[in-house]
Amino acid sequence: MREIAIDTETTSLDPHIASLVGISLSTKIGKACYMPLGHKNAKCLNKEKIIQKLKPILEDKSIKKIGQNIKFDFIVFYKHGITLSSMEDTMLMSYVLDAGKNRHN
Prior knowledge:
There is one protein chain. The chain has helices spanning 47-59, 70-78, 90-97; strands at 3-10, 20-28, 31-36, 64-67, 87-89. The chain is an alpha/beta fold. The longest helix has 13 residues, at 47-59. The model has no long low-confidence stretch (mean pLDDT 89).
């Protein structure tokens, strides 16, 4: 695995106060998963176990992490003891390619 697309689902748009409710991962086009961790009305996975399993992958410098506004996800993961490395942000890429657009989300 050389790259992984990642996204967090949270309870707030402010990553400093947000609670983590889910994580989406994709390792190749057409292959993705969603892990519910803090939903109120769904069977959820054990958040601590998932964080423990993902930590080595998300901190591995040889695996590129790709996300939209990944600084948000960086903060959310950092609050859970994970320091993302080797990141690419699709929002920043969009801005660099077409800075004249009004929005890049």
